[in-house]
Design goal:
Layout: E1 4-10, H1 13-25, E2 33-36, H2 60-68, H3 74-84, E3 88-94, H4 97-109, H5 115-123, H6 127-131, H7 192-196
Helix pairs in contact: 2-3, 3-5
Amino acid sequence: MKGQTVIGIFDYGVDAQMAAQQLMSKGIPESKIDVAVRGATDRHGNPINTATPNTSVGSHDKDSGFFDSLFDSRDESSKYAEVAQHGSIVAVHTQSEDEARRAAELLDKYGAIDVDDRAEKYKSMPHNERNKWINSSIPVVQEELKVGKREVETGGVRVRSRIVEKPVEEHLRLREEHIHVERQPANRPATEKDFATFQKWETEIIEHAEVPLVNKEARVVEEVKFGKETTTRDETVRETVRKKEVDVDDIDTNRDNLNRTNPRNPDRR
């Protein structure tokens, strides 16, 4: 059974390389996979100048020759060459229809673009706009940790005054006076002293007693004072910042596997 070459074109060079790695992890030998990374764009739509010189698909003319060997239709070959000029190519050389189908599914899974759809977009795009996709740079974004401080409420006290009543007791010893009147019978002769008091008279004898005397005196027994004390403390702030890293890998320019002889009816991605 004749072999087939399955083509996947990627906007991003990193995706093309990742797709190749995934193909190998799924059992497709590295010797059957060719990758050409150049003219790709980054994930923000900015072009990346990753052209690899001296590769079999390093120019539009070589791309055209490569795709001419795969397609019977000149229009189909030109379409693939035009799209590939602005992207990165992964070519998988398979030995059976089942292997070709599996490779095509994996390329789609890992981000291969729809060539027909992209070609239609190119038709409506001025040629000078397409060239803007070729030369640019990748922005490297890194987060920096900015630490400040702000004042927040952490607590406090609320002060209220209220009147409470409680019963109290005090023990006193009180003195009272009581008048006792006694009459004693007598039988003796009256003396001059008796005759001296033998006249009309009247007198009063008053009884006295002590009673409790209650008075209240307000006294300050405690003072509540308010103040603030400011202290400082050290705290370590731990956070995670992100940085975009760009890895640039050299491409083996001696590999010329993309010029292998291929059947005229490959699976097209």
